[in-house]
Amino acid sequence: MKKILWIDDDELFNKLLGHTLNSRFKEVQYTNFTDGNKALVHLNLCLKNKVFPNLIFVDLNMPGMGGIEFLEIYDKHYRNMAETRVFVLTSSVRQSELSYAKSIPCVEDCLTKPLTSAKLNELLSN
Amino acid sequence: MSNLTSLITRMNINELQVKHQKKIVKTESDISILIVDDNKDNLYSLKSLLEIGNDYRILITQSGEECLKIAIKEPVTIIILDVQMPGMDGYEVAKILKANAKTKKIPLIFITAVNHEIRYFLRGFDAGALDYIFKPIEPEILKAKVKTYISLAQAQNALSRLNNDLESMVAERTRQLEERNLELEKMYKVLDNFLHVTAHDFRAPLANINLVTELLKTSDNKEQQLHLIQTLNQIATRLDETVKGIVEMMEVQEKRHSPVKQINLNEVFENIRKEILPQLENIDGEIISDFSQASSFYYIPVYIESIFRNILHNSLKYRSPKRKLVINVNANTDGEYSVVEISDNGIGIDLEKYGKKIFSPFTRVNRSIDGKGLGLHLVKNMIEMNNGRIEIFSTPDKGTSLKLFLKNYSK
Q1: What's the number of domains chain B is made of?
Q2: Is the dihedral of CA B249, B255, B256, B261 positive or negative?
Q3: B375-384 pLDDT, tens digit each
Q4: Residues of B contacting chain A (CB within 8 angstroms)
Q5: Which residues form the domain of B107?
Q6: Are strands B326-334 and B286-290 parallel, antiparallel or unpaired?
Q7: Which CATH number do you get for residue A34?
Q8: Nearest to B317 by CA among B271, B365, B252
Q9: Counted domains in chain A
Q10: pTM score, whole prediction
């Protein structure tokens, strides 16, 4: 069973993505958080249980710990722990922000919303 | 000598009278001639000769040292200097005059006897003399030369004044342009940031609309479809709010050039209080205001009103359900700032979590409460646009306090 974790402060988006996963990707387990701090706590638990998510999506603009900060911490402490693929998933179109995020080694790519079922399918089947 | 005295006796009596009358009307001339000669008789003859028919201010001295002192202290247009003098002679005086920045531009005319060798005269020109007048003095030649050199000096002065004016004008203009440039750069950054934040705030709901429609397309559950349509409705409302917010921000920018007026804080605040009174009474809230320490100052009235309105609306919106809303307002003066403090006992903000973001546009701390997320951003913008600043203090579940430093406009 594939596992997805995502961090986004847009509650509506979280609800909708959950909805999509529930109805279309019944074999996927998911967890989501509205800021980086809570996600890190969860990742520590994953580390203890040695069960990591297959995919992580991170939004960039969030109150509290933002996406970049989360990614930098993740890159330092968790990148080598598992085969997790990490993506930025945002509505931001600011190039400087996106290319900075992309330069963090753990980030595989920057995806812009919306995250379509087709794209999800592609990411999950790889 | 004899020439001079004879000239004075030959003088037209009318000329003297005219001169005398002029002296009464106008005591100060802007042309000053300094005559230096060790011989007192020569000195006074030259003085009267030049005074006749001219509006010159004549300064005289018998010594070179005294000449230097006067030239530094007084605005001297031209110096007529005897070459042979006991003590400091004409050459030495000329050298010192030419070495001093304040006196080096004053034209010099030497007086000397005609019977000298050429190298004697050359020495004078080297020392900085413009010309020679020979003894015995020919009055008409003296007057003509003095007149010519004075107009030359005046033309030169006018030119250098013009030059100075021009230079300071250019410097002032450059300074203004640099200032404007900085302002534009600041504005550009604000706009750039605003544009990206706005783009984000449009793209996020649009992306959600996409997700909803994708789900709708394949959903065969009636109840779920209804729920998704309601969601679309919510998103539309939010987008509408965002557009309204943008219009509001544009309006604030447009008010930039409104006239500055004397502000009576108490009066302005009372007007806004009246505006929100129905809402306040509805929730049994209370506003305690004290403007006894505030003095009247100059500001753009629409901004003060808008600042008060936005802050009070925030206090109403983010009140705590656990207690009766109390808003405290007071004001005092701190140098060139009028300081207004507005505190409430609402739900407060976790500043550690939100930090500076609290002032960013479309930041809504509590998404369960409707809002455009623009209030504080607008308030900060308006205050900073008018060269002031804002400080925020807040404790979650205790309340929020804003300290506004409004920079007074000069009348």
Answers
A1: 2
A2: negative
A3: 788 888 889 8
A4: 196, 199-200, 203-208, 210-212, 214-215, 218-219, 231, 234-235, 353-354, 357, 363, 365, 367
A5: 2-137
A6: parallel
A7: 3.40.50.2300
A8: B365
A9: 1
A10: 0.56
